[in-house]
Design a protein that fits this description.
26 strands, 456 residues, 7-stranded mixed beta sheet, 9-stranded mixed beta sheet, alpha/beta
Length: 456
């Protein structure tokens, strides 16, 4: 899939979202940005959100236009401009069907974004958890990790203290002193002195807490609440900075571009086959239907399919209830009513089904269905690692001991097809020990449920 075909929806069109847009736009991606009916963007001279109340906006080499429908958005995209739309996410997702969603509203919390919204979902800043409500999170805290892509867990929590710019932190902020309408008394680009009147909010004066240049200010007439950030002062007093995307926004944009590029390299290139046809002889019954924390064992794996919309997914099973449940997640069902013939039959059935529909697939992630603690982040890491290290066998493990899941490069498919009896891929792995890359994970994730005592 070429990069120009990627459709990317960016939630938000403020200054940081615009920095993200600049990296993606210049890399040839199709963008659609959303905004509120009344944007509260402080650095509006470098934000495409300005299009909401001015109908159009220019930031560096980007031009944005306010649109009223997805049809109009597509027409604007065709001209090389960026459409900005005011619409509910559910409507946009259904009509636009983006490949990627980037939540860049910087609310310091997740306001509803889900990992299932698109094949790839990126959260920006605090409030998101990679592998839970998004595929990855980009760090927004100033410092050595600014712009880092986090593939598991959370970014640095919000401290409530803005980053140091020119030796100042909290003093930089111009905050509303009362609820009501804002009346700016200075313009972006003006030089102000400490103690100078810079705005009136709700009839109350707002004074500068430091000297410098006004780098940001809300547009006149916006309704604000007391203590809302209404402006920004920069001690460096370089007027050009008022009209350039910031270093922070560019760094965050670089992180998003890195993440999107990784996804682009794996989108539709790898498949997932879940093996769920075992007889459960050691368990003494059908363990996959066994409840764990009031949820059937198999459901733990199916839940992870919410984040794998960008990949062909298959489940090999002989259980009708598992098959019906898997269909709801868009999985392809591969029937195996002969579990007594061993795991090799499931491996080969899954492999054959996948290759019949996707003969050019680069690799397949085989996962069992009885590892309830296995995380989505681990599965996604194996796929990303396979892209970076082609022609290798990528598996999980602990202290160099190999475990499941395992991602097989297409190079090994012929050997997998020759397996017989109750022998899985480990037999093939023994023949290629030099090609194995182990991704170390928690011991709890590796634990599979073989006996009833394992549920304890």
């Amino acid at each position: 899939m070429g990069s120009i075909e990627m459709k990317i929806l960016i939630k938000g069109a403020g200054d940081l979202a615009t920095g993200i847009a600049s990296r993606l736009y210049r890399s040839g991606h199709q963008l659609l940005m959303t905004e509120l009916p009344v944007p509260l963007t402080v650095r509006r001279t470098v934000a495409l959100s300005r299009a909401v109340y001015e109908q159009h906006a220019e930031v560096e080499d980007m031009s944005a236009l306010l649109v009223g429908s997805i049809k109009e958005a597509l027409e604007v995209q065709a001209t090389g401009k960026i459409p900005v739309i005011i619409e509910e996410p559910e409507v946009i997702l259904k009509e636009y069907q983006p490949d990627v969603v980037v939540d860049a509203i910087l609310a310091k919390r997740n306001l509803g974004t889900e990992i299932s919204w698109a094949p790839f979902v990126v959260g920006v800043g605090p409030g998101f958890t990679a592998g839970v409500d998004c595929h990855c999170v980009v760090e927004t805290k100033r410092g050595h990790t600014l712009g880092d892509v986090i593939w598991e867990g959370e970014p640095i929590p919000n401290t409530g203290v803005p980053g140091n710019v020119g030796g100042f932190t909290l003093e930089r902020l111009i905050k509303a002193t009362a609820d009501g309408v804002i009346e700016p008394k200075v313009q972006i680009g003006d030089i102000v002195e400490k103690g100078q009147l810079v705005a009136i909010t709700g009839g109350e004066p707002v004074y500068a807490k430091m000297s410098g240049i006004v780098r940001g200010m809300l547009q006149p007439g916006v309704t604000v609440q007391k203590n809302l950030k209404a402006g920004d002062i920069d001690a460096r007093c370089e007027r050009k900075n008022c009209y350039l995307i910031s270093d922070k926004a560019r760094a965050i944009g670089g992180g998003v571009l890195e993440a999107v590029t990784q996804f682009e390299r794996i989108y539709g290139q790898y498949a997932v086959v879940v093996l769920a046809a075992g007889s459960g002889s050691r368990f003494g019954g059908n363990k996959l239907q066994e409840l764990k924390s009031d949820k059937p064992m198999y459901q733990y794996m199916l839940d992870k399919m919410e984040g794998l919309k960008g990949f062909p997914t298959y489940i090999v099973t002989g259980a009708d209830d598992i098959a019906e449940a898997a269909k709801k997640y868009g999985m392809n069902i591969v029937e195996n009513k002969k579990p007594e013939e061993g795991i090799s039959r499931s491996v080969k059935l899954g492999l054959e089904a996948c290759l019949a529909e996707h003969p050019e697939i680069r690799g397949i992630l085989f996962s069992v269905c009885d590892q309830p603690e296995l995380t989505f982040s681990t599965m996604f890491t194996l796929i990303r690692k396979a892209m970076l290290r082609p022609q290798q066998i990528i598996c999980t493990g602990k202290d160099k001991e190999m475990g499941n899941p395992v991602l097989w490069d297409k190079k090994y498919f012929p050997e997998l097809m020759k397996l017989t009896g109750d022998v899985g891929g480990k037999k093939v792995m023994q023949n290629h020990l030099q090609d194995i890359i182990i991704v170390e994970i928690d011991e709890a994730e590796l634990k599979d449920i073989d006996y009833r005592r394992d549920l304890e």
